[in-house]
Amino acid sequence: RQCNFTDMPAESILDIQVDPSLKENFIERNPCESAIQCAPEMSEHEVNTERFETQSRGINHVEGGWPKDINPAEVEQTMRYRKKVEKDEVYIQAIQQLGSVMEHTIRQNNAVDIYEEYFNDIVEDGCTEPPSAKTINVFRDPNEYKRSAVNISWYPDNAQKLAVAYSILEFQRSPPECAWIPIFGMLSLQTNQI
Predict the structure, then answer these.
(1) Distance separating alpha carbons of residues 25 and 19, to the nearest angstrom
(2) C-alpha angle 116/119/122, rounded to 5°?
(3) With b meaning 16 or more CB within 10 Å and e meaning fewer, what string describes 24-34?
């Protein structure tokens, strides 16, 4: 049944008289202010700072950092260089010093019983159900060259948006058309969480 609302003047249903004896139970607060915010607080701040020029440099440590005149692909050159370095007095002293530090650390580890149950009183509340995963969507790289997704970041508001960082991890094998891609591709990203 539909409700029918009409305009009418205010009507007093109940009038409770003041009891002066109850006034002693209360303390007057002056001033009394309360702030209520129902929406999430967001802010934006921009700062202009002095420009600072930076330059990124890197090295691919697939085969270690060799001198420029040593080709790491040549086994004979690397063996000769290793023998030369191993005969150096500074190298021998460095190895002896690192050996004493390593021995000290190993002796510390031997003093601790790694198989002892240290937290017997903690009850595991693990689930007996085996972990599982289900594919809902497959997002493909829009680029024609094969790149790996190296990081995924979800937008904090209800996780309805996501950002993916793609990178060619084998930099030397990059196609020449990708010369505009920096030496170290984007390896991490983060959505703006205000």
Answers:
(1) 11
(2) 150
(3) eeeeeeeeeee
Cα distance between residue 51 and residue 151, in whole Å: 29
Please name which of 188, 192, 112 lies closest in space to residue 157, comparing C-alpha atoms. 192
Q: What are phi and psi of 150, to 5 degrees?
A: -100, -15
SS3 assignment, position 119: coil
Q: Judge contact between 170 and 185, C-beta under 8 A.
A: no
Q: Are 172 and 163 in contact (CB under 8 A)?
A: no
pLDDT, tens digit, 9 for 90 and up, residues 132-173: 888 888 877 777 777 788 888 877 777 677 788 877 766 656
DSSP string, 50-71: -----------TTS----TT--
Q: Is the pTM of this model over 0.90?
A: no
Structure-token pair, residue 96: 């002896």
